[in-house]
User: Which sequence fits this backbone?
């Protein structure tokens, strides 16, 4: 009997998926139900492939949302989702980024060699941070979302903030700053203690850049150490306070931003940074 086309087994085309948390690679039509290495859910998988550096297209927008969590689809991301949805509901233009999806190198600490070596644009042009620098200079407001890791922000977010040193150093070099008078709001989500410290650590960075913290500009929500962390996801997604508090922060950022503080304070502030 002749072999027909239907008798020939065809290899299934596989797609490569990368866990955004631990970078485990999985091949299949769909991402796995969970990562076998770090146990993250399937929502943390993204298509794997050659990474193109992030480029800022120069488009105008009002609010930059940064999800500083290692998990692009975790509990902190849920707060960022609420913030993004409310901004769009208010018809305020925004761009949202999950840091776990981007390549951001640690700071080279050029300032430690000599102050003049810490320049803007940053000397490291090999990763995604130059695009974030441009967006920080263009946007009117920033909303930062962070988890609580050992009573502090995530390592990814710390590296991101470290890399804004070149923007802060403009003041030390007697040059025109790019961020004074902009507005900031801070969202913190975690399993247990450390929310206020985390928020203050984040705010100190933006204060040194000349940002204004919106009144009632910090919201945090924790579950509690008496609960297993595996129950956090369900708790946060059925919690009314996390929604109302996040929307409240966004509202306050919008109201201050619409006062056009950046333009009104231009040339009137005395930079005092360390």
Assistant:
């Amino acid at each position: 009997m002749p072999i027909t086309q239907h008798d020939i087994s065809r290899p299934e085309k596989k797609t490569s998926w990368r866990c955004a948390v631990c970078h485990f690679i999985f091949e299949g039509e769909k991402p796995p139900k969970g990562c076998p290495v770090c146990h993250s859910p399937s929502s943390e998988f993204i298509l794997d492939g050659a990474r193109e550096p992030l480029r800022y297209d120069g488009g105008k927008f009002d609010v930059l949302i940064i999800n500083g969590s290692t998990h692009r689809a975790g509990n902190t991301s849920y707060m960022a989702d609420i913030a993004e949805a409310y901004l769009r509901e208010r018809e305020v233009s925004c761009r949202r980024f999950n840091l776990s999806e981007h390549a951001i190198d640690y700071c080279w600490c050029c300032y430690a060699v000599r102050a003049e070596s810490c320049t803007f644009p940053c000397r490291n042009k090999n990763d995604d941070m130059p695009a974030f620098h441009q967006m920080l200079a263009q946007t009117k407001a920033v909303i930062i979302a962070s988890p609580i890791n050992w009573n502090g922000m995530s390592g990814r977010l710390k590296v991101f903030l470290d890399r804004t040193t070149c923007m802060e150093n403009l003041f030390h070099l007697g040059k025109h700053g790019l961020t004074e008078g902009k507005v900031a709001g801070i969202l913190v989500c975690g399993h247990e203690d450390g929310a206020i410290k985390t928020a203050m650590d984040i705010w100190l960075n933006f204060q040194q850049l000349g940002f204004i913290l919106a009144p009632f500009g910090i919201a945090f929500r924790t579950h509690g150490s008496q609960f297993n962390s595996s129950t956090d996801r369900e708790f946060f997604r059925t919690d009314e306070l996390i929604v109302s508090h996040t929307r409240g922060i966004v509202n306050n950022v919008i109201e201050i931003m619409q006062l056009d503080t950046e333009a009104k304070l231009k040339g009137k502030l005395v930079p005092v940074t360390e």
